[in-house]
Amino acid sequence: MSKQKEELEHRLKLRNVQLSDYNDIRELMTLIYEQKGMTYTREELKNQIKAFPEGQICIEDNGKVVAVALSVVVEYSQFGDSHTYDEITGFGKFDTHDLENGDTLYGTEVFVHPEYRGLRLGRRLYDARKELCENLNLRSIIAGGRIPGYSKHSEQMTPRKYIELVKNKEIYDPVLSFQLANEFHVRKVITKYLPEDKDSKAFATLLEWNNIYYEKDEKLIGNSKSIVRLGLVQWKMRRFNDVDDLMQQVEFFVDTVSGYKSDFCLLPEFFNAPLLAGFNDMDASEAIRNLADYTEEVLSRMRDLALSYNVNIIAGSMPEYDGKKLRNVSYLCRRDGTTDKQYKLHITPDEQAYWGLQGGNGISVFDTDAGRIGILICYDVEFPELGRILAEQEMDILFVPFWTDTKNAYLRVSTCAKARAVENECYVAITGSVGNLPRVENMDIQHSQAAIYSPSDFSFPHDAVIAEASLNTETTIVADVDLDLLTKLRKMGSVRNLAQRRLDLYSIQWKRK
């Protein structure tokens, strides 16, 4: 058999280290570290495995260990940033391991056989460590990293300057470059970490990888949800005799989405517009002000539905009139009985001309038991500044109740909603109304296709659409969104629209308090 064929027949296996691996590990460490006096004894390896067997990981090839990663769990505040390798490892005994009180997975060693470095085994070991850190609900991984390339530059620059040039890829360091590529950041430079490490001039980088899923005080019940179920109502405009008639239809849909254990129920903008038919003898501006007289009663009944059906309701939008200003408002009725509201800020020319609507002056992110949400009513989603302001307040889901009469109007809303999902790394749920309302001025025809949009990256649907309703048909959408995927995207996405903004060049400022 040729040497080339032998090299192709790898049988790699990732597993935990066993004491029987000692000879392979010593041979490997001797090959890499002998001149630095950094090999473990059999007794030290035995202690390490006994202290924390899950944290000692290796990769074997055809039964022979070719890569190793060792670690302990420590309560990091007991050591601080100025520790030495011997202090945090208990001089290699790992008696510092403290799984009960520890909050940090401390990486003590990673080494790969030189002949295997082209197979990216180090990356596999780092990924296994990250998985272990997440499964143990630890805050972070911290490690002291050698900078073996520094000896060649120590007379020309400080360690800090060296690290900066490695970050900018002006210099390649065989250890630090790899760690930076694996999403670690340099916490600080430490001295005398490994006094015998001449290549690093006894300097080391204190590196950290943060576990984005870490829960400091995880509760047995009542934790924040990661999988959130959205229920969207694509509402048909029809004649209703009175508020009781309207709310009977509303309750039907709330009952429907609640039956699927939805966390949210979203209704369209001006879902109560059919009640305008009772004011056909008035002009449009007077009729809409009379419609506003029903808003308080509808809100009260929406609050009761949220409680009785155990679902957070975004009550589309309704007109509000205080005798001076007519505004368009969306109410959030939480299932705990509390409410909040969001005014429509931007008024279309048509709404101003027919009704005299005025815009609100504030915008908020609302806390719920299923994530932080924002609400933008119809036209507001076409202004990207608003979505960005909400995203800066850590919004997870943006709800957009809308009313559009024609396809081009709908496309403005839906296209902008898709853009808000991408640029703000959030989910966007939109719904409108369908059908028609004869003899109701300015609300006569409807066009809608309710949908839930996601960011566009590997963890999400290929077309960035979670779900989509049938066009111009009264129906519902019920679908799940994963908030953990947003967390992952914001830290590790192919692109990171929020994190990579050039805030040194521009910003968005909310002027009115």
From TrEMBL:
What domain of life is recorded for the organism? Bacteria
Write down the Gene3D superfamilies for this protein, in alphabetical order: 3.40.630.30, Carbon-nitrogen hydrolase
- Please give the PROSITE patterns that the UniProt record associates with this protein: CN_HYDROLASE, GNAT
Q: Which UniProt keywords apply?
A: Hydrolase
Indicate the segments forming the CN hydrolase domain, all copies. 228-483
Against SUPFAM superfamilies, the record matches this protein to: Acyl-CoA N-acyltransferases (Nat), Carbon-nitrogen hydrolase
Supply the Pfam families for this chain.
Acetyltransf_1, CN_hydrolase
Coiled-coil ranges per UniProt: none
Q: Annotated Gene Ontology MF terms?
A: acyltransferase activity, transferring groups other than amino-acyl groups; hydrolase activity
Cross-referenced InterPro entries, in alphabetical order? Acyl_CoA_acyltransferase, C-N_Hydrolase, C-N_Hydrolase_sf, GNAT_dom
Provide the N-acetyltransferase domain boundaries.
12-172
Protein name, entry field: Hydrolase
What's the source species' lineage?
Answer: Bacteria, Pseudomonadati, Bacteroidota, Cytophagia, Cytophagales
